[in-house]
Every structure is written in structure tokens, then in C-alpha cells.
Amino acid sequence: MTAEPSVRGARLRRNLGRLFEVVTTDVLVWEVRAPPRTPRTAIDLRIAEVKPGADWQAVVPAERRRSTRPFERRGDTGFVAFEGDRYVGWVWLSRRTHRDPWSGLHFKLARDEAYAYALWVEPDVRPRGVARALMVTMLQSVAADPALTRVYGWVDRRNRESQMLLRLLGFKDVQTVRRAHLLRRRGRRVPGSSRPAFGPLSRQGRHKTPTTTTEPQP
Length: 218
Ligand SMILES: CC(C)(COP(=O)(O)OP(=O)(O)OC[C@H]1O[C@@H](n2cnc3c(N)ncnc32)[C@H](O)[C@@H]1OP(=O)(O)O)[C@@H](O)C(=O)NCCC(=O)NCCS
Fold this sequence. Notes:
alpha+beta; Aminopeptidase; eight-stranded mixed sheet; globular; binds coenzyme A
């Protein structure tokens, strides 16, 4: 049986969307202040912090180590959630300017800035407060570090859950960008799409302002 042209068109658009799509993404910032208190979760949760130079093998599950190798090489910090012995999610924090191949976004960081990425919670434990607990633990760690004054995160406009979560935690808009996504695996920023032009994704941003360095001023 042949599908109606309108049904075929919708199917084609859906399949093309899996291959290639352009999405609007918000870049948000959390400026250091007293972080929210650790929330209650509906499961018995333990969050391990994996610092640069730590024994990653002891914390990151073996089947996930391949994906975390670039994080480890960069010296990023992980917040890894466990229910009992079972891995149930994580979020990562970078202090290094780099281009993330998955999102295609290139965050340019000043010395007092960090960038949170790869927030993930295993589907069968959503929504029971794991992401909130991970984010709060990460913000508590940022707030406890005197070298940091702000942390960025990015979230696609259509990702309702994460938009709600980050905004409820006090993240505010700093830039909006459009990015092309290939096979839902590789991203690329659409040139000229960052608004405003000044920000962490642009050549001109806080990272170019000398007063943002933590070094003593002359
Ligand atoms: C987004 C994600 C991390 C949320 O994880 P979670 O553990 O289910 O989230 P939590 O239970 O901690 O919920 C925190 C807040 O998020 C929002 N939220 C979570 N699930 C929601 C849903 N299904 N509908 C609406 N809001 C939701 C709510 O504001 C919630 O706060 P509340 O419980 O006080 O209402 C998870 O869905 C996920 O891993 N998604 C895929 C990867 C992803 O999108 N990562 C984020 C990239 S920025």
C-alpha cells in the first residue's frame, strides 16, 4: 500500500531531520553566588566528583571510558551519579577553551569561567531529581572555587526539560546561536548566527576583557 503524499512528505522530513537539522540553541550563564541546597531525590543517590589527575578508572564505568577520554585529556572535572553501584548519570565541567565536536560550539573562556556540558541521566531514572542533584553538586563545587565567577551551559531551545532545569537553578541568557547537526552526532555553528555578537561563542567576548583575568593588575 502506498502512503498519501502528505504522509510521505512528513515521513521524508522526519528522516531527513535525523540526518541533518538546524537547531536554535541558548547559551546560559550562572554567576557565582550561594548555590542552591542539595535537593532530595526519589532514589538513593551518591555523586562522585572526578577531579583532574584522579583515578578515573575507579569512578567512570568501563563501558563509558572511551567517551570520557577527551574529557580526561583536557583536565575536566566530572560529577558522576550512582544508585548503589550502578551509574545513573553525569555532568562535566571544563576550564579550557575548546570546540566540542558533538555540539559544534566553541566556548572561549576567560580565566574565571567554566563550561558545563554532557548532562545526562539514564532514561529509567528520569525524572526523579537526578539531574537537579548533579547540577547543584556541580554549582556547589564552582561556588567553592575562588578562581571561578561564572559557569556557562548550552541547551537547545526545544529541550523543554533542560530549559526548565537550568533556568530554575538561576541560569540566565547570554547568547543564542543556530547550529547544524549531522546524524545527531556532529555539530557546526551556523556562521554569523550568534546573537548578540559579543559573548563566549564569539571572537569578542568577556574572554577578551583584561579585567576578567585573575592575575594581579599593574
Ligand atoms: C534533561 C535531563 C538531564 C533531566 O534529567 P532528570 O533527572 O529527569 O531531571 P530532574 O528529575 O532532576 O528534574 C529537574 C527539573 O527538570 C525539569 N524536568 C525534568 N523532567 C521534566 C519533564 N518530563 N517535563 C518537564 N520538566 C521536566 C523540571 O523543572 C524538574 O524540576 P521539578 O522536578 O522541580 O519539576 C534528562 O532528561 C536527560 O538526560 N535528557 C537527555 C540529555 C539532555 O537533554 N541533556 C541536557 C543537555 S543541556
